[in-house]
Amino acid sequence: MAINVIKSKCKGCNLCVKACPFNAIDLIDKMAVINSSCTVCNQCISVCPFDAIEKEEIQEKVIDLSEYKDVWIFAEQRGGKLMEVALEILGEGYKLSREIGPNCKICAVLAGSEVELMVDELYAYGADKVYVIENPLLKNYTTDGYTKVMTEAITKYKPEIVLFGATHIGRDLAPRIAARLNTGLTADCTRLDISTANYMDYLQTNTTADTSNLDKNSHDKNLKQTRPAFGGNLMATIVCTKKRPQMSTVRPGVMDKREKDISLKGLKVAVECKIEESDIRTNVMEIIEAAKELVSLTDAEIIISGGRGLGDPSGFELISKLAEKVGGVVGASRAAVDSGWIDHSHQVGQTGTTVKPRIYFACGISGAIQHVCGMQNSDIIIAINKDIEAPIMQIADYAIHDDLFKIIPEIIEQWDK
Amino acid sequence: MKIIVCVKQVPDTNEVRIDPIKGTLIRDGVSSILNHDDANALEEALKIKESYPDTHITVLTMGPPQAQDMLIECMAMGANDAVLLSDRALGGSDTWATSNALAAGVAKIGEYDIIFAGRQAIDGDTAQVGPQLAEKLGIPQVTYVKEFSIKGNEIIVKRALENGYEIIQLRIPCLLTAIKELNNPRYMSVSGIYKACNTKVAVWNAEDIKVDQTKVGLEASPTNVYKSFTPKPKGKGITITGDSTKAVVENLMCALEAKHLV
């Protein structure tokens, strides 16, 4: 595939140059020229008013992918405990395997030392099969050790899809395996589809994508892997049609795990494991669990901000309590900082810090433009305010028209439930 | 000691905005910068050079010709020389194909003890090229490096985990990917700028690095973009109500739970 400019149609209007997310189009002698940064993302095709840009489809070689079967998930465990994300991708993998067809199994691969105890848990969360790779040398995660045993298992049993949690371990291991197997890998996916109909539903409900060239009755069984890029400003769906297995790392906290059912049983497969000490070139001397360090406003996943509505400096004690409960960071409006209630380092807004957390709590903040500038890109904004006319209530995803001194203690009470 | 630092020129995504009507990226006035994590990778190499003055640092990138500006910046920070892999045949490479091209570039550069790279680039956020390059070169890797020390051939690093860190020991040659906790990148120095302006960036094409052309570029890449699009702009929010404070918060928690936020 490649993007081509039809020279006779290009008027040099520059629209495609501006639309290109990758800076891959230059205007040379009043003509658009595609440079080497092009990733064939197709953004330029639809913006061209003169239909001067086209995608050249090259007949792809037909290779036999049919010997690859089943969906695998890497059941990441640390210190004998399964990671939450392993159960999430097991739930997602279950769904995908059923979309592929009745003969497709969902299988978990469990590598480590003395991992037997976790097998039943994987059945309970939906695994049809659990491949167990057991060896004392796999006690701690090492890139070399896990790459070797996983690559050998994949080569032997030939799954068509392998999913990993996008953890610090998954994102270290999966690229190494994909490179060794010479197959494709998509990073940090937030949505996976087999069924074209489901995929179209998603696009139509949640995005501005044009779905006119998709067929909801399509028999296409390739994995459509959707992920954010450019800091979430752009989304892309990636496919790997020529190679197997199709591999993805999946963002933690996005997929649904299945309801636990301890009556479920599956098939255990003990995988032969040939690994020696000399295969592992790194030595894990120590693993240290540390209490989460205080993160900055910029990196915070959750921010609890207070404003003039707190009434006086003591209001920030309640804000801090909620922050502690939810593992968030305390922010403030300029009004609160100017009143001397809290240090300027907490200020969010044009003259403070620009933030982009997953959840932003605005408590007793009116939402002056200078504040909104600094937090409007938060994924979810929750505003708690006694004034229903406050501007913050207009931009909030969830507005609560009530007294923050009643609501916040109740949130603290209910958060863990 | 010979060090290669892999870097990437990226658009400053903090400045990227979406045109609300057309749903496309607005790039006007968006500058191209040295990727943040890569600056940390280079800084660590420069710190080694301070301790071992005979250290030679080569920065390596793949990209369009304008990436030379970034390489000159890296030399002004203190790198000895710079290589740009640039060829239409390499364009559109995914991470697998990119690592094949970089591996061929490393082979042409010659001997090395350590390869540093940033953990991930802010435009693609894949964090895959570092490990895939290490695999293609057949050397061990440590990703997410937040602390580094070296004594002879032995390296000890702290590798960040979600809830702590690991202390890992390994030997050169190896590849390490840096995160921002590793150090604070320096600025260019005046003498560095002067020197950099008088040093030519080596620009190599696919033929120069003798790469198997069936393993690079768009055609060879196992992954392809199927569709790209922008999320729908946020609709108007909802007001959460309830008969009691408890009920209001319960409704809020339900809403957050449905979106996987708690």
Total strands of chain A: the figure is 22
> What top-tier CATH class of the largest domain in chain B fits best?
Alpha Beta
Biggest sheet of chain B, in brief?
9 strands, mixed
H and E string of chain B: EEEEEHEHEHEHEEEEHEHEEH
The greatest interface between two protein chains, and residues involved on each side, is: A-B, 103 and 95 residues
Number of DSSP helices of chain B?
7
Structural class of chain B: alpha/beta
On the 0 to 100 scale, the average pLDDT of chain B is 92
| Helix-and-strand structural type of chain A | alpha/beta
Major pleated sheet of chain A: 7 strands, parallel
Structural descriptors:
A: 417 residues, alpha/beta, Alpha-Beta Plaits, Rossmann fold, seven-stranded parallel beta sheet, 12 helices, 22 strands, 27% helix, B: 262 residues, two-stranded antiparallel ribbon, 29% helix
Provide an overview of this structure:
The complex is a heterodimer of chains A (417) and B (262). Chain A is an alpha/beta fold and 417 residues long. Chain A has helices at residues 15-19, 43-47, 84-100, 119-124, 143-157, 170-181, 196-206, 315-326, 334-338, 369-375, 391-395, 404-414, and strands spanning 2-5, 25-28, 31-34, 53-56, 71-74, 77-78, 81-82, 106-112, 129-134, 161-165, 185-189, 191-193, 224-229, 234-239, 246-250, 267-270, 282-289, 302-306, 329-332, 359-363, 380-385, 398-401. Chain A has 3 domains: 2-56, Alpha-Beta Plaits (2-Layer Sandwich), CATH 3.30.70; 71-279, HUPs (Rossmann fold), CATH 3.40.50; 302-414, Rossmann fold. Chain A has 12 helices and 22 strands. Chain B has helices at 36-51, 68-77, 95-109, 129-137, 190-197, 217-220, 245-258, and strands at 2-6, 9-11, 17-18, 25-26, 32-34, 56-62, 81-85, 114-118, 141-151, 154-161, 164-171, 174-178, 202-204, 224-229, 238-239. Chain B has 7 helices and 15 strands. Chain B is 29% helix and 29% strand. The chains are: A alpha/beta (417), B alpha/beta (262). At the A-B interface, α5, α6, β11, β13 and β14 of A face β3, β4, α3, α4 and β9 of B. β22 of chain A pairs parallel with β15 (238-239) of chain B, so a sheet runs across the interface.
